[in-house]
Amino acid sequence: MACVGVFVAYLPVTTVSVSLPAVQRALNASTAQLSWVSDAFVLPMAALILTAGVFGDVHGRKKVYQAGLALSGLGALVALSAHSVQVLWIGQALAGIGSAALLPTTLALISHAVPDPRERAAFIGLWATALSAALALGPVLAGLVLEHASWRWIYLPTVPASLLAMAFAARLLTDSRAPGGRRLDWPGQITAALAITALVYGIIEGGAGSFSDALVVTALTVAAVSAAAFVLAERRSDAPMLDLTLFRSPAFTATTLIAMISFLGMIGFFFALSLYFGLVQRLSTLDAAWRLLIVAAVPLLLGAPVGRLTHRVSPRLLIPGGLLAVTAALLTLTGIDATTSYAALSWRLALLGLGMALVITPMTATAVGAVPFRQAGMAAAGNNAFRQVGAALGPAVLGALLSTRAVGALPGHLTDAGLAAPVVRRVTAVAQDGGIGAVGAVDLGADTPRMLAALSASFLDGLHLCLLVAAALTLLAAAVGAVLLRAPRATAAGQDTGPGRTTGPRSADDGTPAPARV
């Protein structure tokens, strides 16, 4: 049921992202409106993950799990019936809230069912496989739908999937709560949600416009003040939403930073790569989806084996090793151009997928296993929250870099293509007003092929910059892992006593003592 839940939570991520051009044409949405279609999902998911984890610990993980499925299905229904971009935002936001409820709850369900950290790692590997399956199937599903029907039908599979999962969960799951009388931490929840929302909003709007804009400056200021207020509230709270003492564990600190930094780089890269397939190689949604499939297919195949490997190989080797593989893949991708074949691209994408497989499962298992068992749900929620903040910032940060570099390079490439100065000024004005993607719709008659070649060259300049920045971010994440991750200490009995662990028998999630293990 945890695997089903994370599949439902992540299915909209790639399904919607590859469908944005069709949404724009159908709803006549502006570029700014279109950017908020994805952000309306990601922002509440990032802002409410910590809160959802607390609700699960206090009121029961099964209840929050089912509420997440219900909100995901409801959001899909609203989006399915949307005839304006504003209604689509509402549907996406509801689905994002549902995903925020599902992500920490699914990991907490695994921690409750499998207390032993060695056994748990294999099940977290299956959880990561389900996550990868959603990311892999999303673009293919969207491509098949867009080939034969309206874009709205991309939301249909989520509805029966949510309803069936709710029905099975009602029969199969037992409820669980965190021991120790944990209660809701309203000051922490409000300040955390406000800080994350303001930060993501400020970065997105600043990247689309200017970081000197008054609204952007205000949002970033609110984010900084709210973050400081959150730290103060958590330090004073008797029942904090995110116990800051968790960061005394180097392993938890490392995995949290790695989650945010690496996902900022990788998700931002996927955003740029999908544009490359559309704007430069002129592929259909389905053709682009088949090419992106390999990136998610490799983690899908390797998720369970890597999960079993995590208790045999130190995360200090696995996680930085995977990040170095991702870095190498990103650097090799700087050699692609408009005519790069899929055969030349596929091995680079497979290397990228291999690196991700070596990072996602060990990172999640290490974050959950680095803290006391009673705080496993909190650790999962915190790790997911920082991961989603990185995922939300990635397209905004790298998208802004790509757009700025591409638009800046466009006049030179247009001039090199032999276009007249008035035409160069006209096309450049379109790019400055509507973004680099708007240039593809300009009709210059006989000069259109030369304009499109200049557009491709300009986009590749921006893409190469994004690849270098993403590679630098993943390299930084690898350095963090190499410095902070440590192999767990073992007692004479061979039990794991890393940060937050004791040598005695673990207690079950309901507070009853667990049977001693021989």
From TrEMBL:
It is a multi-pass membrane protein. GO terms for cellular component: plasma membrane. It holds the Pfam family MFS_1. PROSITE patterns: MFS. Residues 1-489 form the Major facilitator superfamily (MFS) profile domain. The keyword NADP does not apply. SUPFAM superfamilies: MFS general substrate transporter (SSF103473). InterPro entries: MFS, MFS_dom, MFS_trans_sf. It comes from the Bacteria. This is MFS transporter. It comes from Streptomyces doudnae.
